[in-house]
Amino acid sequence: MLDWFLGALPATVLVVIEVGLLIVALAAAPRNRRPSSALAWIILIVVLPFVGLALFALIGSPKLPKVRRDKQRTMNERIEQRARTVEHVTDTHGAPPWLPSIARLNREMGAMPLIDGNTATLLPHFEEQLAGLIDAVDAAERYLHVEFYILALDSTTRPFFAALSRAVERGVAVRVLVDHLGSLKYPGFRRARRELTRMGADWRLMLPVQPLRGRYQRLDLRNHRKLMVVDGQVGFVGSMNVIDPSYETAGNRRRGLQWRDLMARVEGPVVQEIDALFVTDWYSETDEIPGNITVDAEVDDEDPTTLLAQIAPSGPAFETENNLALFNSLIYAAERRISITSPYFVPDESLLGAILTAARRGVSVELFVGEIGDQFLVFHAQHSYYEELLLAGVRIFEYSAPTILHAKHMSVDDLVSVVGSSNMDIRSFQLDLELMMLVSGKAFTDALKSVEDEYRTKSTELTLSAWQGRSAFHAFVDGVARLTSAVQ
Description:
The protein is α/β, with parallel strands linked by helices and about 500 residues long.
Protein backbone atom coordinates (compact mmCIF):
# COMPACT_ATOMS: atom_id res chain seq x y z
CA MET A 1 0.00 0.00 0.00
CA LEU A 2 2.84 2.37 0.93
CA ASP A 3 4.66 1.49 -2.27
CA TRP A 4 1.56 2.34 -4.30
CA PHE A 5 1.12 5.66 -2.46
CA LEU A 6 4.75 6.64 -2.99
CA GLY A 7 4.49 5.69 -6.66
CA ALA A 8 1.34 7.74 -7.13
CA LEU A 9 2.70 10.77 -5.27
CA PRO A 10 4.59 12.36 -8.21
CA ALA A 11 1.51 12.13 -10.41
CA THR A 12 -0.66 13.61 -7.64
CA VAL A 13 1.78 16.48 -7.14
CA LEU A 14 1.79 17.09 -10.87
CA VAL A 15 -2.00 17.20 -10.99
CA VAL A 16 -2.10 19.60 -8.03
CA ILE A 17 0.44 21.87 -9.72
CA GLU A 18 -1.49 21.81 -12.99
CA VAL A 19 -4.75 22.61 -11.21
CA GLY A 20 -3.02 25.42 -9.34
CA LEU A 21 -1.63 26.84 -12.58
CA LEU A 22 -5.06 26.62 -14.16
CA ILE A 23 -6.61 28.55 -11.26
CA VAL A 24 -3.88 31.21 -11.47
CA ALA A 25 -4.33 31.49 -15.22
CA LEU A 26 -8.12 31.71 -14.93
CA ALA A 27 -7.79 34.45 -12.32
CA ALA A 28 -5.21 36.57 -14.16
CA ALA A 29 -5.54 36.06 -17.91
CA PRO A 30 -9.19 37.07 -18.59
CA ARG A 31 -8.90 40.42 -16.78
CA ASN A 32 -9.58 43.25 -19.27
CA ARG A 33 -8.61 40.99 -22.14
CA ARG A 34 -10.43 39.58 -25.15
CA PRO A 35 -11.69 35.99 -24.65
CA SER A 36 -9.53 34.72 -27.52
CA SER A 37 -6.41 36.32 -26.06
CA ALA A 38 -7.24 35.13 -22.54
CA LEU A 39 -7.78 31.57 -23.77
CA ALA A 40 -4.45 31.61 -25.59
CA TRP A 41 -2.66 32.72 -22.42
CA ILE A 42 -4.45 30.08 -20.31
CA ILE A 43 -3.46 27.29 -22.70
CA LEU A 44 0.15 28.51 -22.85
CA ILE A 45 0.47 28.72 -19.04
CA VAL A 46 -1.03 25.26 -18.49
CA VAL A 47 0.80 23.47 -21.31
CA LEU A 48 4.18 25.22 -20.94
CA PRO A 49 4.04 26.57 -17.38
CA PHE A 50 7.57 27.94 -17.06
CA VAL A 51 7.56 29.54 -20.50
CA GLY A 52 3.96 30.74 -20.12
CA LEU A 53 4.46 32.30 -16.68
CA ALA A 54 7.71 33.97 -17.74
CA LEU A 55 6.10 35.45 -20.84
CA PHE A 56 3.02 36.57 -18.92
CA ALA A 57 5.24 38.33 -16.38
CA LEU A 58 7.13 40.09 -19.18
CA ILE A 59 4.35 40.94 -21.61
CA GLY A 60 1.10 40.04 -19.89
CA SER A 61 -0.01 43.63 -19.34
CA PRO A 62 -0.71 45.64 -22.52
CA LYS A 63 -0.64 48.97 -20.64
CA LEU A 64 2.16 51.34 -19.74
CA PRO A 65 3.02 51.78 -16.06
CA LYS A 66 0.52 53.76 -13.98
CA VAL A 67 2.78 56.80 -13.68
CA ARG A 68 2.84 57.19 -17.46
CA ARG A 69 -0.92 56.69 -17.78
CA ASP A 70 -1.37 59.37 -15.13
CA LYS A 71 0.77 61.77 -17.18
CA GLN A 72 -1.41 61.07 -20.23
CA ARG A 73 -4.53 61.89 -18.22
CA THR A 74 -2.93 65.09 -16.94
CA MET A 75 -2.15 66.25 -20.46
CA ASN A 76 -5.61 65.27 -21.71
CA GLU A 77 -7.16 67.43 -19.02
CA ARG A 78 -4.97 70.40 -19.98
CA ILE A 79 -5.85 70.01 -23.64
CA GLU A 80 -9.57 69.70 -22.90
CA GLN A 81 -9.50 72.85 -20.81
CA ARG A 82 -8.03 74.83 -23.69
CA ALA A 83 -10.01 73.30 -26.55
CA ARG A 84 -13.29 74.70 -27.85
CA THR A 85 -16.17 72.73 -29.34
CA VAL A 86 -16.06 73.03 -33.11
CA GLU A 87 -18.23 70.15 -34.36
CA HIS A 88 -20.92 72.61 -35.53
CA VAL A 89 -18.67 73.88 -38.33
CA THR A 90 -19.07 70.61 -40.21
CA ASP A 91 -22.25 72.02 -41.79
CA THR A 92 -20.21 74.66 -43.62
CA HIS A 93 -18.10 72.13 -45.55
CA GLY A 94 -20.69 69.67 -46.78
CA ALA A 95 -19.27 67.03 -44.46
CA PRO A 96 -21.24 63.78 -44.11
CA PRO A 97 -23.86 63.83 -41.34
CA TRP A 98 -22.09 61.07 -39.43
CA LEU A 99 -18.79 62.97 -39.07
CA PRO A 100 -19.69 64.89 -35.86
CA SER A 101 -20.33 61.67 -33.95
CA ILE A 102 -16.95 60.25 -34.99
CA ALA A 103 -15.23 63.52 -34.12
CA ARG A 104 -16.89 63.37 -30.70
CA LEU A 105 -15.72 59.77 -30.26
CA ASN A 106 -12.13 60.79 -31.01
CA ARG A 107 -12.39 63.72 -28.62
CA GLU A 108 -13.83 61.61 -25.80
CA MET A 109 -10.96 59.14 -26.13
CA GLY A 110 -8.04 61.37 -27.13
CA ALA A 111 -9.04 64.89 -26.00
CA MET A 112 -8.42 66.56 -29.39
CA PRO A 113 -11.27 68.46 -31.10
CA LEU A 114 -12.19 68.65 -34.76
CA ILE A 115 -10.78 71.97 -36.02
CA ASP A 116 -11.49 74.04 -39.13
CA GLY A 117 -9.20 76.26 -41.18
CA ASN A 118 -6.48 73.76 -42.18
CA THR A 119 -4.60 73.01 -45.37
CA ALA A 120 -2.71 69.82 -46.17
CA THR A 121 -0.48 68.43 -48.89
CA LEU A 122 0.25 64.75 -49.40
CA LEU A 123 3.86 63.66 -49.97
CA PRO A 124 3.69 60.17 -51.48
CA HIS A 125 7.36 59.59 -52.37
CA PHE A 126 10.47 59.46 -50.19
CA GLU A 127 12.44 62.14 -52.03
CA GLU A 128 9.73 64.76 -51.57
CA GLN A 129 9.11 63.65 -47.98
CA LEU A 130 12.75 64.14 -47.02
CA ALA A 131 12.99 67.39 -48.96
CA GLY A 132 9.81 68.65 -47.31
CA LEU A 133 11.21 67.95 -43.85
CA ILE A 134 14.52 69.65 -44.68
CA ASP A 135 12.85 72.74 -46.16
CA ALA A 136 10.65 73.08 -43.09
CA VAL A 137 13.61 72.72 -40.73
CA ASP A 138 15.51 75.38 -42.66
CA ALA A 139 12.51 77.74 -42.31
CA ALA A 140 12.25 77.28 -38.53
CA GLU A 141 12.68 80.43 -36.46
CA ARG A 142 11.77 79.49 -32.89
CA TYR A 143 11.56 75.76 -32.28
CA LEU A 144 11.47 72.31 -33.84
CA HIS A 145 9.73 69.29 -32.35
CA VAL A 146 10.91 66.08 -34.00
CA GLU A 147 9.53 62.64 -33.06
CA PHE A 148 10.18 59.43 -34.99
CA TYR A 149 10.01 55.74 -34.21
CA ILE A 150 13.27 55.24 -36.12
CA LEU A 151 15.90 57.95 -36.49
CA ALA A 152 19.15 57.01 -38.19
CA LEU A 153 22.04 58.97 -39.65
CA ASP A 154 23.14 57.51 -42.99
CA SER A 155 24.19 58.80 -46.38
CA THR A 156 20.55 59.42 -47.33
CA THR A 157 19.41 61.17 -44.16
CA ARG A 158 22.61 63.18 -43.59
CA PRO A 159 21.07 66.34 -45.19
CA PHE A 160 18.24 66.22 -42.62
CA PHE A 161 20.71 66.14 -39.73
CA ALA A 162 22.69 68.93 -41.38
CA ALA A 163 19.50 71.02 -41.46
CA LEU A 164 18.90 70.32 -37.76
CA SER A 165 22.47 71.42 -37.03
CA ARG A 166 21.96 74.66 -38.95
CA ALA A 167 18.79 75.28 -36.96
CA VAL A 168 20.64 74.87 -33.65
CA GLU A 169 23.38 77.22 -34.86
CA ARG A 170 20.88 80.00 -35.57
CA GLY A 171 19.30 79.67 -32.15
CA VAL A 172 16.29 77.45 -32.84
CA ALA A 173 15.31 75.21 -29.92
CA VAL A 174 15.54 71.67 -31.32
CA ARG A 175 13.87 68.92 -29.30
CA VAL A 176 14.03 65.34 -30.58
CA LEU A 177 12.28 62.17 -29.41
CA VAL A 178 13.21 58.75 -30.77
CA ASP A 179 11.99 55.31 -29.76
CA HIS A 180 14.71 53.36 -27.98
CA LEU A 181 14.21 49.76 -29.11
CA GLY A 182 12.66 50.79 -32.43
CA SER A 183 15.93 52.42 -33.48
CA LEU A 184 18.47 50.45 -31.48
CA LYS A 185 19.25 47.76 -34.05
CA TYR A 186 20.24 50.21 -36.79
CA PRO A 187 23.91 51.31 -37.01
CA GLY A 188 22.77 54.77 -38.08
CA PHE A 189 21.05 55.25 -34.73
CA ARG A 190 24.34 55.36 -32.88
CA ARG A 191 25.61 57.90 -35.39
CA ALA A 192 22.39 59.89 -34.99
CA ARG A 193 22.79 60.02 -31.21
CA ARG A 194 26.36 61.25 -31.49
CA GLU A 195 25.40 63.88 -34.07
CA LEU A 196 22.42 65.16 -32.06
CA THR A 197 24.66 65.50 -29.03
CA ARG A 198 27.39 67.21 -31.05
CA MET A 199 25.06 69.81 -32.54
CA GLY A 200 23.51 70.61 -29.16
CA ALA A 201 19.98 69.37 -29.81
CA ASP A 202 17.92 68.40 -26.77
CA TRP A 203 17.12 64.77 -27.50
CA ARG A 204 15.57 61.95 -25.45
CA LEU A 205 14.77 58.28 -25.81
CA MET A 206 11.11 57.24 -25.85
CA LEU A 207 10.14 54.28 -23.67
CA PRO A 208 13.77 53.46 -22.86
CA VAL A 209 14.58 49.96 -21.67
CA GLN A 210 17.33 50.71 -19.14
CA PRO A 211 16.55 48.61 -16.04
CA LEU A 212 19.84 49.52 -14.34
CA ARG A 213 18.67 53.13 -14.44
CA GLY A 214 15.21 52.24 -13.21
CA ARG A 215 13.64 52.80 -16.63
CA TYR A 216 11.69 49.75 -17.71
CA GLN A 217 8.26 48.70 -18.97
CA ARG A 218 6.96 45.87 -21.09
CA LEU A 219 9.58 45.47 -23.84
CA ASP A 220 7.20 45.52 -26.78
CA LEU A 221 5.28 48.64 -25.75
CA ARG A 222 6.73 51.16 -28.20
CA ASN A 223 6.16 54.72 -29.42
CA HIS A 224 5.48 54.24 -33.13
CA ARG A 225 4.55 57.86 -33.94
CA LYS A 226 6.16 59.88 -36.72
CA LEU A 227 5.71 63.65 -36.57
CA MET A 228 7.45 66.99 -36.80
CA VAL A 229 6.28 70.49 -35.83
CA VAL A 230 7.91 73.77 -36.89
CA ASP A 231 7.19 76.88 -34.81
CA GLY A 232 3.67 75.62 -34.13
CA GLN A 233 2.77 76.59 -37.70
CA VAL A 234 3.73 73.63 -39.91
CA GLY A 235 3.34 69.96 -39.08
CA PHE A 236 4.15 66.60 -40.65
CA VAL A 237 2.44 63.28 -39.88
CA GLY A 238 2.50 59.90 -41.57
CA SER A 239 4.35 56.59 -41.76
CA MET A 240 7.90 57.60 -42.74
CA ASN A 241 10.88 56.90 -40.52
CA VAL A 242 14.06 58.97 -40.87
CA ILE A 243 16.25 56.27 -42.37
CA ASP A 244 17.31 55.18 -45.84
CA PRO A 245 14.36 53.45 -47.60
CA SER A 246 16.37 50.21 -47.63
CA TYR A 247 16.47 50.30 -43.82
CA GLU A 248 20.27 50.09 -43.87
CA THR A 249 20.71 46.33 -44.17
CA ALA A 250 22.95 44.68 -46.74
CA GLY A 251 20.37 41.94 -47.31
CA ASN A 252 17.68 44.50 -48.17
CA ARG A 253 20.03 46.24 -50.59
CA ARG A 254 20.93 42.96 -52.30
CA ARG A 255 17.24 42.26 -52.81
CA GLY A 256 16.58 45.84 -53.92
CA LEU A 257 14.00 46.36 -51.17
CA GLN A 258 12.62 49.87 -50.72
CA TRP A 259 10.00 50.93 -48.17
CA ARG A 260 7.24 53.18 -49.52
CA ASP A 261 5.51 55.59 -47.13
CA LEU A 262 3.04 58.46 -47.11
CA MET A 263 3.44 61.76 -45.25
CA ALA A 264 1.16 64.79 -45.01
CA ARG A 265 2.38 68.37 -44.58
CA VAL A 266 -0.26 70.42 -42.75
CA GLU A 267 -0.79 74.00 -41.75
CA GLY A 268 -3.49 75.58 -39.62
CA PRO A 269 -4.87 75.05 -36.11
CA VAL A 270 -4.55 71.26 -36.26
CA VAL A 271 -0.77 71.73 -36.04
CA GLN A 272 -1.37 72.74 -32.41
CA GLU A 273 -2.85 69.29 -31.83
CA ILE A 274 0.21 67.60 -33.31
CA ASP A 275 2.35 69.80 -31.10
CA ALA A 276 0.26 68.92 -28.05
CA LEU A 277 0.92 65.25 -28.74
CA PHE A 278 4.67 65.89 -28.94
CA VAL A 279 4.52 67.86 -25.70
CA THR A 280 2.65 64.97 -24.06
CA ASP A 281 5.35 62.50 -25.12
CA TRP A 282 8.10 64.90 -24.04
CA TYR A 283 6.47 65.32 -20.64
CA SER A 284 6.13 61.55 -20.31
CA GLU A 285 9.88 61.11 -20.83
CA THR A 286 11.25 64.19 -19.05
CA ASP A 287 8.64 65.52 -16.57
CA GLU A 288 9.01 68.83 -18.41
CA ILE A 289 6.37 70.73 -20.40
CA PRO A 290 8.18 72.82 -23.05
CA GLY A 291 5.87 75.74 -23.67
CA ASN A 292 2.19 76.33 -24.32
CA ILE A 293 -0.06 73.51 -25.52
CA THR A 294 -3.13 75.61 -26.28
CA VAL A 295 -5.44 73.91 -28.78
CA ASP A 296 -7.75 76.65 -29.99
CA ALA A 297 -9.03 77.86 -33.34
CA GLU A 298 -11.34 80.29 -35.00
CA VAL A 299 -14.33 78.13 -35.86
CA ASP A 300 -16.23 80.51 -38.11
CA ASP A 301 -14.00 79.95 -41.12
CA GLU A 302 -16.32 79.30 -44.09
CA ASP A 303 -13.53 79.14 -46.68
CA PRO A 304 -14.50 76.04 -48.71
CA THR A 305 -10.86 75.37 -49.58
CA THR A 306 -9.87 74.66 -45.98
CA LEU A 307 -10.11 71.33 -44.23
CA LEU A 308 -11.65 70.02 -41.06
CA ALA A 309 -8.97 68.03 -39.25
CA GLN A 310 -8.49 66.22 -35.96
CA ILE A 311 -5.56 64.37 -34.43
CA ALA A 312 -6.51 60.98 -32.96
CA PRO A 313 -3.81 59.61 -30.62
CA SER A 314 -3.88 56.04 -29.35
CA GLY A 315 -1.80 53.51 -27.49
CA PRO A 316 -1.14 51.80 -24.16
CA ALA A 317 -1.18 55.15 -22.30
CA PHE A 318 -4.95 55.24 -22.91
CA GLU A 319 -7.57 53.04 -21.31
CA THR A 320 -9.29 52.34 -24.67
CA GLU A 321 -8.17 51.19 -28.10
CA ASN A 322 -8.71 54.56 -29.75
CA ASN A 323 -7.52 53.77 -33.27
CA LEU A 324 -9.55 50.57 -33.46
CA ALA A 325 -12.69 52.48 -32.47
CA LEU A 326 -11.94 55.12 -35.13
CA PHE A 327 -11.41 52.55 -37.90
CA ASN A 328 -14.53 50.58 -36.98
CA SER A 329 -16.67 53.71 -36.82
CA LEU A 330 -15.54 54.93 -40.23
CA ILE A 331 -16.10 51.55 -41.84
CA TYR A 332 -19.62 51.24 -40.45
CA ALA A 333 -20.38 54.82 -41.54
CA ALA A 334 -19.26 54.29 -45.15
CA GLU A 335 -22.00 54.36 -47.77
CA ARG A 336 -20.21 53.87 -51.09
CA ARG A 337 -16.49 53.07 -50.91
CA ILE A 338 -13.66 52.24 -48.52
CA SER A 339 -10.00 52.07 -49.49
CA ILE A 340 -7.61 50.71 -46.86
CA THR A 341 -3.81 50.67 -47.02
CA SER A 342 -2.09 48.75 -44.23
CA PRO A 343 1.25 46.93 -44.48
CA TYR A 344 0.48 44.83 -41.39
CA PHE A 345 -3.15 43.77 -41.61
CA VAL A 346 -4.09 41.44 -38.75
CA PRO A 347 -7.58 42.61 -37.70
CA ASP A 348 -9.29 41.70 -34.48
CA GLU A 349 -12.78 40.21 -34.58
CA SER A 350 -14.52 43.58 -34.48
CA LEU A 351 -12.54 45.12 -37.34
CA LEU A 352 -12.83 42.01 -39.50
CA GLY A 353 -16.57 41.97 -38.87
CA ALA A 354 -16.89 45.64 -39.80
CA ILE A 355 -15.05 45.15 -43.09
CA LEU A 356 -16.94 41.99 -44.04
CA THR A 357 -20.26 43.65 -43.16
CA ALA A 358 -19.45 46.72 -45.25
CA ALA A 359 -18.62 44.59 -48.27
CA ARG A 360 -21.76 42.49 -47.88
CA ARG A 361 -24.03 45.53 -47.64
CA GLY A 362 -22.77 46.78 -51.00
CA VAL A 363 -19.92 49.13 -50.07
CA SER A 364 -16.99 48.88 -52.48
CA VAL A 365 -14.06 47.83 -50.29
CA GLU A 366 -10.45 47.53 -51.41
CA LEU A 367 -7.34 46.63 -49.42
CA PHE A 368 -3.76 47.46 -50.41
CA VAL A 369 -1.06 45.26 -48.90
CA GLY A 370 2.42 44.20 -49.93
CA GLU A 371 3.34 41.28 -52.14
CA ILE A 372 6.26 40.73 -49.77
CA GLY A 373 6.66 41.49 -46.07
CA ASP A 374 9.47 42.10 -43.62
CA GLN A 375 7.94 40.30 -40.62
CA PHE A 376 7.38 36.58 -41.15
CA LEU A 377 4.66 35.85 -38.58
CA VAL A 378 2.69 39.03 -39.27
CA PHE A 379 2.93 38.46 -43.02
CA HIS A 380 1.51 34.94 -42.76
CA ALA A 381 -1.08 35.87 -40.14
CA GLN A 382 -2.26 38.53 -42.57
CA HIS A 383 -2.59 35.93 -45.32
CA SER A 384 -4.92 33.88 -43.14
CA TYR A 385 -7.65 36.53 -43.55
CA TYR A 386 -7.56 36.87 -47.32
CA GLU A 387 -9.99 34.06 -48.17
CA GLU A 388 -12.72 35.44 -45.88
CA LEU A 389 -12.26 38.90 -47.33
CA LEU A 390 -12.32 37.71 -50.94
CA LEU A 391 -15.42 35.62 -50.35
CA ALA A 392 -17.20 38.71 -49.00
CA GLY A 393 -16.27 40.71 -52.09
CA VAL A 394 -13.30 42.72 -50.78
CA ARG A 395 -10.78 43.45 -53.53
CA ILE A 396 -7.18 42.82 -52.41
CA PHE A 397 -4.25 44.40 -54.24
CA GLU A 398 -0.69 43.29 -53.56
CA TYR A 399 1.86 46.05 -54.17
CA SER A 400 4.59 44.52 -56.32
CA ALA A 401 8.02 43.57 -54.98
CA PRO A 402 10.70 44.70 -54.35
CA THR A 403 8.85 47.65 -52.81
CA ILE A 404 7.43 47.13 -49.34
CA LEU A 405 4.28 49.22 -49.00
CA HIS A 406 4.55 50.81 -45.56
CA ALA A 407 1.90 53.58 -45.78
CA LYS A 408 -1.07 53.58 -43.41
CA HIS A 409 -4.25 55.34 -44.50
CA MET A 410 -7.92 54.95 -45.34
CA SER A 411 -10.39 56.95 -47.43
CA VAL A 412 -14.17 56.73 -46.99
CA ASP A 413 -16.66 57.77 -49.66
CA ASP A 414 -15.60 61.12 -51.16
CA LEU A 415 -14.93 63.40 -48.22
CA VAL A 416 -13.28 61.69 -45.24
CA SER A 417 -9.79 60.24 -44.84
CA VAL A 418 -7.34 59.20 -42.16
CA VAL A 419 -3.55 59.23 -42.52
CA GLY A 420 -0.91 58.41 -39.96
CA SER A 421 1.25 55.78 -38.28
CA SER A 422 -1.21 53.08 -37.19
CA ASN A 423 -1.36 49.69 -38.83
CA MET A 424 -4.49 47.58 -38.71
CA ASP A 425 -3.12 44.93 -36.39
CA ILE A 426 -3.30 44.07 -32.73
CA ARG A 427 0.14 45.56 -32.08
CA SER A 428 -1.01 48.99 -33.26
CA PHE A 429 -4.34 48.66 -31.45
CA GLN A 430 -2.89 47.68 -28.06
CA LEU A 431 0.88 47.95 -27.82
CA ASP A 432 2.13 50.93 -29.84
CA LEU A 433 1.60 54.65 -29.28
CA GLU A 434 0.16 55.84 -32.60
CA LEU A 435 -1.15 58.95 -34.34
CA MET A 436 -3.85 59.21 -37.00
CA MET A 437 -5.13 62.43 -38.55
CA LEU A 438 -8.81 62.53 -39.50
CA VAL A 439 -9.49 64.91 -42.42
CA SER A 440 -12.77 65.99 -44.01
CA GLY A 441 -12.48 67.71 -47.37
CA LYS A 442 -12.98 66.63 -50.97
CA ALA A 443 -9.66 68.00 -52.23
CA PHE A 444 -7.68 66.03 -49.67
CA THR A 445 -9.65 62.84 -50.27
CA ASP A 446 -9.24 63.25 -54.03
CA ALA A 447 -5.48 63.58 -53.54
CA LEU A 448 -5.46 60.42 -51.43
CA LYS A 449 -7.54 58.61 -54.05
CA SER A 450 -4.89 59.60 -56.62
CA VAL A 451 -2.27 57.91 -54.43
CA GLU A 452 -4.48 54.82 -54.26
CA ASP A 453 -4.84 54.90 -58.04
CA GLU A 454 -1.06 54.86 -58.36
CA TYR A 455 -0.86 51.90 -55.99
CA ARG A 456 -3.36 50.06 -58.15
CA THR A 457 -1.18 50.44 -61.26
CA LYS A 458 1.76 48.93 -59.37
CA SER A 459 -0.16 46.08 -57.78
CA THR A 460 -1.57 42.70 -58.73
CA GLU A 461 -5.15 41.94 -57.74
CA LEU A 462 -5.68 38.65 -55.94
CA THR A 463 -8.43 36.34 -57.15
CA LEU A 464 -10.25 33.89 -54.94
CA SER A 465 -9.39 30.90 -57.14
CA ALA A 466 -5.69 31.76 -57.22
CA TRP A 467 -5.58 32.26 -53.47
CA GLN A 468 -7.40 29.01 -52.74
CA GLY A 469 -4.84 27.29 -54.97
CA ARG A 470 -1.85 28.20 -52.79
CA SER A 471 0.09 25.30 -51.33
CA ALA A 472 -1.16 23.36 -48.32
CA PHE A 473 2.06 24.21 -46.50
CA HIS A 474 1.51 27.95 -47.11
CA ALA A 475 -2.02 27.68 -45.74
CA PHE A 476 -0.75 25.72 -42.72
CA VAL A 477 1.85 28.38 -41.88
CA ASP A 478 -0.80 31.09 -42.29
CA GLY A 479 -3.06 29.36 -39.79
CA VAL A 480 -0.32 28.82 -37.22
CA ALA A 481 0.81 32.44 -37.56
CA ARG A 482 -2.76 33.61 -37.03
CA LEU A 483 -2.84 31.90 -33.63
CA THR A 484 0.19 33.87 -32.41
CA SER A 485 -1.66 37.18 -32.78
CA ALA A 486 -4.00 36.26 -29.93
CA VAL A 487 -1.26 36.19 -27.28
CA GLN A 488 -1.27 39.92 -26.56
